[in-house]
Specification:
By secondary structure, this protein is of the alpha/beta class. About 45% of the residues lie in helices and about 15% in strands. The protein folds into two domains: about 220 residues, Type I PLP-dependent aspartate aminotransferase-like (Major domain) (Aspartate Aminotransferase, domain 2), CATH 3.40.640.10; about 100 residues, Aspartate Aminotransferase, domain 1, CATH 3.90.1150.
Length: about 425
């Protein structure tokens, strides 16, 4: 946290005016962008990306290009978790505990605004995996029913459907991925052909974590809706990355994690449940401390939660809003395009991510010649570059996922490192 914004300032400002008061503090004025964002875009005013980067703890010599797995949180979030946790442990009095219990409702409203839905459709979860499992646990499915999944979903999503199919007797069918990416039309046709009268659920990822394929979510959800099929969109790679408008996409369910692209606290996440599906969706657990509006009154009974982290989740949503989610998406896409163009120009590099900007976002996967991915990952870390690797025979290689806190120098460092490794070997 900036030195001139002390913990005492933080607690006082938050108590007085919440996140808005914090973001108005002079120490954070570098984050401010004119509102609305559309007006600033028209006037040519852009966020100060150096000021944004300064809110994170990573040293300048470390290039963190791994947002698809784990994002660092800004100082404000870290201080929020520590400050609220310290106070809760120091003064666990009923009045403060009631205040902390109410944090979920504030966060719920912020998430609803962020995703363009209503608070009664928002559940505050711990991560995408839990949210997806709430869906597969909460639907009445049995013999004769069918769940249609995309083969390139995250393994935890597909594994959950298949394991529960074995228990409850429904069937699971897959639409296989195709590489190179054949485009939106191909998958819309493929899913349409795969749907049968027995299909009850269609589950697919918004942006794949493997090769970074961006899916036509609105079109697929419309298709499912027209056929009476429930849709689940796994938003692990789009929540906090893309400017997601669920009022346009209109899924039945949408899941996301705070620890990835939103740069929020760990073990906080979201599950959107469209109002039209509420009467068909059963709770996964029953306990104390449920939510206060809509579906949360029956579905958030999870007992004691890490309420300081939930409180900080809401603060991080304000942090993103201060910058503007459309600007964040544009920045991440810009850096990814520079990265893709630079990597594709290296002899021996095979791109798994499509070269078509309209079919991708900020997940970049490639094969670095004949080099072993695990050795490349280790070399990158030694050179101060954080990435992820993919082993095996399915699109093996390295995955970079730059985000709005990155700079062009981060991207150039990564390109130069891969060029050097491929040419000289490891």
């Amino acid at each position: 946290m900036p030195r001139d914004l002390t913990r005492r300032d933080f607690a006082r400002l938050f108590a007085a005016g919440g996140s808005a008061a914090l973001l108005a503090h002079p120490a954070l004025k570098g984050l401010a962008v004119p509102a609305p964002l559309a007006a600033s875009t028209r006037s040519g005013v852009a966020p100060d990306w150096e000021a944004v980067r300064a809110q994170f703890l990573m040293p300048q010599e470390l290039s963190v290009l791994n947002a698809a797995n784990l994002c660092p949180a800004p100082r404000l979030v870290l201080e929020a978790v520590q400050t609220f946790t310290e106070r809760l442990d120091r003064d666990p009095v009923p009045s403060y505990r009631n205040e902390m219990h109410g944090a979920k409702e504030v966060v719920r409203e912020k998430l609803a605004t962020f995703l363009r839905v209503i608070p009664g459709e928002i559940l505050v979860t711990r991560n995408t995996s839990e949210a997806n499992n709430w869906v597969s646990n909460g639907l009445d499915l049995g013999p004769g029913d069918e769940v249609l999944i995309f083969s390139d979903n995250h393994p935890s999503n597909n594994q959950a459907w298949k394991a529960k199919a074995g228990r409850f007797g429904y069937s699971v069918r897959e639409v296989p991925y195709v590489t190179p990416y054949p485009g939106y039309g191909y998958y819309v046709d493929a899913f349409e052909r795969a749907i049968t009268p027995a299909t009850r659920v269609l589950s697919f990822t918004h942006l794949t974590s493997t090769s970074g394929d961006l899916f036509p979510a609105a079109e697929l959800c419309r298709m499912a809706r027209d056929r009476g099929v429930i849709s689940l969109v796994d938003g692990a790679q789009s929540f906090g990355n893309l400017d997601v408008d669920l009022s346009v996409i209109q899924p039945d369910f949408y899941s996301g994690s705070a620890h990835k692209w939103p740069c929020g606290p760990k073990e906080t996440g979201v599950l959107y449940v469209n109002a039209r599906i509420h009467d068909r969706f059963w709770p996964s657990s029953y306990s104390a401390y449920t939510g206060r509006v809509g579906l949360s009154r029956t579905h958030e009974g999870m007992g004691q939660r890490d309420e300081p982290a939930i409180h900080a989740f809401g603060l991080q949503m304000d942090f993103l809003a201060a910058i503007g989610q459309a600007a964040i998406e544009a920045r991440s896409r810009e850096l990814s395009s520079v990265l893709i163009d630079g990597l594709a120009a290296i002899d021996g590099v095979k791109m798994w991510t499509t070269m078509d900007p309209s079919l991708r976002a900020s997940v970049v996967t490639f094969q670095p010649g004949t080099l072993e991915p695990s050795r490349v990952l280790a070399a990158l870390e030694e050179d101060g570059i954080v990435a992820a690797s993919r082993g095996g025979s399915d699109r093996p290689g390295i995955r970079f996922s730059p985000h709005f806190y990155n700079s062009h120098s981060d991207v150039e460092r990564a390109i130069d490192a891969i060029r050097r490794y491929v040419r000289a070997g490891l």
